[in-house]
Structures are given as C-alpha cells and as structure tokens.
Amino acid sequence: MDAVLWIIAIVVGLIVVVAILAVAVRGMRPKLPEPQVFTPTTATSHSAAASSATTSASGLTPDVIAEIDRLVAAGQKIHAIKLYRDHSGTGLKEAKDRIDHWSVSTTAPHTAAVSNTTATHSAITPTAATPSSVRAQLPASVASDIDKLVAGGAKIAAIKALREHTGLGLKESKDLIEAWPHTHAS
Q: Which of 53, 154, 166, 184 would give a disulfide with 147, using CB separation of 3.0 to 4.6 Å?
C-alpha cells in the first residue's frame, strides 16, 4: 500500500510539474505582431497660397520634390530619405521604400533645384562630370584648394572637399579626384 501511495504521489507531482512547464513555455512563445495601420498625415496649411503649393497629401511642395529629384539623381538616397521624412512626417521604412522607387519628376520648376539643406551643394550632375567641367563649376577658391590637396597627395581630403561642395557621391568624387588634372596646382 505504501508503494501505491508513492507512485500516485510521484504521478501527481509529475503532472503538476508538466502543467507548470506548459504554462511557462506558452508564456515564452513569441506572439504574432499586431498589424500596423497606416494613417497618412495630411498637411495642414494656414493659407490658400500655402495649400496651392502642396502637390499631394504628403505635404511635399514643388521645391522639396525638386530637391529630392536632385538628391536621387546624384545618388544621395540617405539625404533624400531624410528630406522626405522631414517634409512628409513618414516613418523611416516608408520613406526609404518611397525613395527607392522614386522617379525623377519632370514637372518640378527648374528654380527649385537649389539645395535647401544645410550643406553647401551645387547642381553638378554626375552623368557628364569630368574633372575639368566640375572644376569650372566650382568657386575659384574651392578649385584652388582641391588643386593644392591633389598636388600635395592628400586625395582623401580632396575627395571630402569635392563632396562637400558638389553633393556628389563618394565613388563619383573619388573617380574625379583620381583623374584630376595636376596642371592647375598653384
């Protein structure tokens, strides 16, 4: 009789342990993420002139669209994503997806191609950029500084200066500095 009570106690104890473990494991199981509901933010304008300047529900003005066009064409997707997020109020993933599928607008005014960002950028496009054409479009002081850096063998500093003043990507700037004429050094 003692053996039967011990067997029953052990079986009940095992059932209790299994029940506790089942509850603990169920609590550790990853839960399905709740579906995210997107509610677009609409631009609230305070005047009729401001509302006529917006082109879509995202609140992007023609100037912002032109700047994003310029950044996408120059291969500066990170800056374009930041600008899109700043003006539309969207999240990072949505802004990245939008910029990844961005097609350069042909309706943006040409005067809006001037950069509105804090860095100094010009409208030099990397498509037909040669060292001579880029040098001709740079301010004389900047071109002279880059000439001195290239002549002195400081190619990294020259690439950095070229990128700061043109808005070109790293690869385009490196290629231009590699082909930079050494005859302009002062």
A: 184
Across the chain, mean pLDDT equals: 75
Give the Cα separation of 20 and 41 in Å (integer). 47
Whole-prediction pTM value? 0.34
- The pLDDT value given to residue 14: 96
| Alpha carbon of residue 90 to chain centroid | 12
How many C-beta neighbours within 10 Å does residue 91 have? 12
- Predicted pLDDT at 55: 45
* CA distances (Å), origin 178, targets 23, 95, 128, 150, 184: 65, 34, 16, 9, 14
Q: Which two tokens stand for residue 101?
A: 């599928």
Query: From CA 66, how far away is CA 145, in angstroms rounded?
Result: 30
